[in-house]
């Protein structure tokens, strides 16, 4: 097979990789995209329920987790949600806003894939797909890649293979391995934006409530690494899911408890004490005005307070009612783990950004090596933030190659 030379080779033709390749190609560089999958950009295709939540109008650095929280500021402000929206509109893609600034395609996420592909074609980006990279090594100032399609020489190399979520779609830790090979530090990767699971015995009272959803305030952690989200929570056979849980999972560390406010914005103590003095109702009847009856029964069972459900409030001491209200506002449970990469939307952790230039995404001690997208230790909230990071870091890199 023939040997080929490029100004820049981008490994991984996903969100960040196509963005970087198009930007660099438009500047006149000879760029090659190398992708190992059979189908292009599977994660964009399945994202946002098939409609791709491609950005969020409220993006700031505050919606990203990282050991180096200020790192993402520069790229995010140099390429904003408005910039991406301009691109989407130039391609005639119709879009709409859902809640909380989340922007989706009207028709299909395929529109975003077509748009990125056409930007790459206009920029004369070359493709090798499917193509497996067997090794990467230094070659003078540049790099040489041994691949299933022969040797490729790159003056500059971009690692854009994303995170490890959904390995069944071909996700790998390739970028982390190559970064490590060049002496870069890795922040321990873990599944994030992922359902949380519980010990089967502990979860027994709730397992049969699978499918029940409610709004809740969920928090975990302490100090700077603490998170709080007020969103919908969903009970599943094995544990908890829904936006509130996916969001908090990115902040959760093994062994830590979650605190769940089952009645956010309400004053249950006041309500229950008032009900005690004005009526003859049973506790479970009053609680069932807020939540499905089965959930009330399951929750009381999990608190070892099953018998209380049938008690009239008037029979309960005020102190007991106060304790009960407090635990409904701060239900404390400890997940045994996450549902893993198979069910996660993203990976948290990744290449430590302290060794990366925040304006260009180039590794400071490895001239010519760039890392972008989810492979870096930058993890966005649910709601379009991860794609915006892919577009912004891809652009920062593509403009600097
Ligand atoms: P991305 O994963 O897009 O691309 C990496 C590319 O590298 C892939 O094409 C992969 O095949 C390729 N690759 C991997 N290993 C390789 C190797 N060894 N050799 C060559 N190529 C290799 N985000 C958001 O903002 N809004 C949303 O609506 C959603 N929805 C969503 C749903 C689901 C189910 C998932 C799993 C994820 C999301 N996300 C999301 C997250 C979003 O998809 C993700 O953060 C970005 O795609 C990351 O962009 P990257 O370019 O870094 O990786």
TrEMBL record:
<protein>
    <recommendedName>
        <fullName>NAD(P)/FAD-dependent oxidoreductase</fullName>
    </recommendedName>
</protein>
<dbReference type="InterPro" id="IPR057661">
    <property type="entry name" value="RsdA/BaiN/AoA(So)_Rossmann"/>
</dbReference>
<dbReference type="Pfam" id="PF22780">
    <property type="entry name" value="HI0933_like_1st"/>
</dbReference>
<dbReference type="Pfam" id="PF03486">
    <property type="entry name" value="HI0933_like"/>
</dbReference>
<dbReference type="InterPro" id="IPR055178">
    <property type="entry name" value="RsdA/BaiN/AoA(So)-like_dom"/>
</dbReference>
<dbReference type="InterPro" id="IPR004792">
    <property type="entry name" value="BaiN-like"/>
</dbReference>
<feature type="domain" description="RsdA/BaiN/AoA(So)-like Rossmann fold-like">
    <location>
        <begin position="7"/>
        <end position="399"/>
    </location>
</feature>
<keyword id="KW-0274">FAD</keyword>
<dbReference type="InterPro" id="IPR023166">
    <property type="entry name" value="BaiN-like_dom_sf"/>
</dbReference>
<feature type="domain" description="RsdA/BaiN/AoA(So)-like insert">
    <location>
        <begin position="190"/>
        <end position="346"/>
    </location>
</feature>
<keyword id="KW-0285">Flavoprotein</keyword>
<dbReference type="InterPro" id="IPR036188">
    <property type="entry name" value="FAD/NAD-bd_sf"/>
</dbReference>
């Amino acid at each position: 097979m023939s040997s080929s030379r490029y100004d820049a080779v981008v490994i991984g033709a996903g969100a960040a990789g196509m963005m970087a390749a198009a930007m660099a190609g438009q500047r006149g560089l000879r760029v090659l995209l190398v992708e190992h999958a059979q189908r292009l950009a599977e994660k964009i295709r399945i994202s946002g329920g098939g409609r791709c939540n491609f950005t969020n109008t409220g993006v700031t650095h505050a919606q990203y987790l990282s050991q180096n929280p200020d790192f993402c500021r520069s790229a995010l402000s140099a390429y904003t949600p408005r910039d991406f929206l301009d691109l989407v509109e130039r391609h005639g893609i119709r879009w709409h806003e859902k809640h909380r600034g989340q922007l989706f395609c009207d028709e299909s996420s395929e529109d975003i894939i077509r748009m990125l592909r056409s930007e790459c074609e206009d920029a004369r980006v070359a493709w090798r797909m499917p193509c497996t990279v067997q090794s990467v090594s230094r070659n003078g100032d540049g790099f040489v890649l041994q691949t299933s399609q022969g040797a490729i020489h790159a003056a500059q190399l971009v690692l854009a293979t994303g995170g490890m979520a959904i390995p069944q779609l071909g996700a790998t830790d390739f970028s982390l391995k190559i970064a490590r090979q060049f002496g870069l530090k890795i922040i321990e990767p873990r599944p994030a934006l992922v359902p949380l699971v519980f010990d089967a015995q502990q979860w027994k009272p709730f397992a049969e409530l699978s499918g029940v959803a409610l709004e809740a305030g969920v928090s975990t952690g302490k100090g700077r690494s603490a998170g709080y989200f007020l969103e919908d929570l969903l009970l599943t056979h094995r544990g908890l899911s829904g936006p509130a849980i996916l969001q908090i999972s990115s902040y959760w560390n093994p062994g830590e408890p979650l605190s769940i406010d089952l009645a956010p914005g309400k004053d249950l103590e006041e309500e229950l004490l008032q009900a005690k003095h004005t009526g003859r109702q049973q506790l479970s009847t009053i609680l069932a005005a807020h939540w499905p009856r089965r959930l009330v029964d399951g929750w009381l069972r999990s608190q070892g307070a099953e018998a209380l459900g049938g008690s009239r409030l008037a029979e309960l001491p005020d102190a007991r009612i106060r304790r009960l209200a407090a635990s409904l506002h701060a239900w404390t449970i400890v997940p045994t783990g996450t549902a893993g990469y198979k069910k996660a939307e993203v990976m948290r952790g990744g290449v430590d950004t302290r060794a990366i230039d925040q304006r260009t995404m180039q590794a400071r001690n490895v001239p010519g090596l760039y890392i972008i997208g989810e492979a870096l230790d930058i993890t966005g909230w649910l709601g379009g933030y991860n794609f915006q990071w892919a577009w912004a870091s891809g652009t920062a890199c593509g403009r600097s190659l």
